[in-house]
Specification:
The protein is mainly beta and 125 residues long. Helix content is 8%, strand content 53%. It is built from 1 helix and 10 strands; from the N terminus they run ββββββαββββ. Strands 1, 2, 3, 6, 7, 8, 9 and 10 form an 8-stranded antiparallel sheet that branches. It has a two-stranded antiparallel sheet with strand order 4-5.
Length: 125
């Protein structure tokens, strides 16, 4: 039985749907904690658990300049409030959450795409 996985079909950023590049290999991190093991002087160890945000990175979305997509992304990135997302993978699985755009958001004029990275509270439905 074959299985489709990997790329995202589309992502909705605050009520606006964007199509994703089929060749993408986005990285998704849904872990809620980082664990660090520290040594004690008597040879035992302890674990330091730190809460962290979830992320989706390396996602290229199609940009339609005439639709105002560049302004929409600029508005989302400039906001102090997180926004809702719903990302659908090609296999039908969906990620949902409340995020912020992080890192650079450079528009590739030739390809009409923009690579985005998101951080916040993300879960698979």
């Amino acid at each position: 039985m074959s299985k489709a996985n990997g790329a995202f079909e589309s992502i909705v950023l605050k009520d606006r749907r964007y199509t994703c590049d089929a060749e993408d290999e986005p990285e998704v991190d849904l872990n809620e904690f980082d664990n660090e093991v520290k040594a004690n002087s008597d040879g035992t160890f302890r674990t330091v658990k730190t809460r962290k945000v979830q992320s989706i990175s390396g996602l290229n979305i199609e940009i339609d300049v005439d639709r105002g997509d560049l302004d929409h992304i600029k508005e989302l990135k400039g906001s102090l409030e997180s926004f809702s997302i719903s990302a659908t993978r090609v296999d039908g699985h969906v990620y949902s959450g409340s995020v912020m755009i992080v890192g650079e958001t450079k528009y590739n004029d030739k390809a009409n795409t923009m690579e985005i990275s998101l951080q916040g509270k993300i879960r698979m439905l």
